[in-house]
Specification:
By secondary structure, this protein is of the alpha/beta class. It folds into two domains: 3-144, Rossmann fold, CATH 3.40.50.2300; 164-229, Winged helix-like DNA-binding domain superfamily/Winged helix DNA-binding domain (Arc Repressor Mutant, subunit A, Orthogonal Bundle), CATH 1.10.10.10. The protein is built from eleven helices and five strands, in the order αβαβαβαβαβαααααα. A five-stranded parallel β-sheet has the order 2-1-3-4-5, sandwiched between helices. Strand 4, helix 5 and strand 5 (111-114) form a beta-alpha-beta unit. The longest helix is centred in the last third of the chain and has 15 residues, at 196-210. The model is unreliable at 1-10 and 157-162 (pLDDT under 50).
């Protein structure tokens, strides 16, 4: 692991919970994250235990396996994110099947990393996930963006009494357009010559104005309105 990655994690420790049904793997991941400076607040070995402990520990990031006894990982993700939209979920799975990736994202996961990832990649992924960036094993990000586009191809009709959409600032619209194109917050910051924190603030303001809960809903909103083609 590079000094830069370790220093970044140490300066900004993230409250992390690790969920996996294999004790040795779970302990190893928790140990690596703690050694890198993250604050491992809890671990769990099955679905129901994960839900109970996450509600009590309130981590910033949940590192979650999909194949769990008692309650599958996607159900854990859906329940916890539904109750606390601020929770970030990074799936860490042995499966790279497209169906598993898409189901995880639709359930509220922020990112999806294969277990073949290095320790450095995992540590950096946790830090970026906490910041709100979507983190995917190479090759999976395009798949997810393609699914956003497919979902947006047939948007649900607006209710007759639906209020007029709130007005976004020019900068918020510009950031939203780049989010819809699949750029990370870091890439958006570099493109617009603004700070990473400013990008996060624009996204959070936009979510609030549009009454959306997460990046999945935000990207679909943007694509439905053709902002990704602008």
């Amino acid at each position: 692991m590079s000094e830069t990655t370790a220093d970044t994690a140490a300066q900004h420790p993230v409250r992390v919970m690790v969920v996996d049904d294999h004790p040795m793997w779970r302990d190893a991941v928790a140990r690596d994250l703690a050694a890198a400076g993250h604050d491992v607040v809890a671990t769990a070995g099955d679905g129901p235990e994960a839900v109970r402990r996450a509600k009590a520990a309130r981590p910033d990031v949940l590192v979650l396996d999909l194949n769990l006894p008692g309650l599958p990982g996607v159900a854990v993700c859906k329940e916890l994110v539904g109750e606390n939209p601020a929770l970030r979920v990074l799936v860490l799975s042995a499966s790279g099947e497209h169906a598993d990736v898409l189901e995880a994202v639709k359930s509220g996961a922020t990112g999806y990393l294969l277990k073949s990832a290095s320790t450095e990649e995992l540590v950096e992924a946790v830090h970026r996930t906490a910041a709100g960036d979507p983190v995917f094993t190479p090759g999976l990000a395009g798949l997810v963006l393609g699914e956003y586009r497919r979902l947006a191809a047939d948007p649900a009709p607006a209710a007759p009494d639906e209020p007029k959409a709130p007005r976004l600032t020019d900068r918020e619209t510009e950031v939203l357009r780049l989010v819809a194109k699949g750029l990370s917050y870091k890439q958006i910051a570099e493109r617009l010559v603004i700070s990473h924190r400013t990008v996060q603030n624009h996204v959070q303001n936009t979510l609030g104005k549009l009454q959306l809960h997460n990046r999945v809903e935000l990207v679909r909103y943007a694509i439905e309105r053709g902002l990704d083609d602008a």
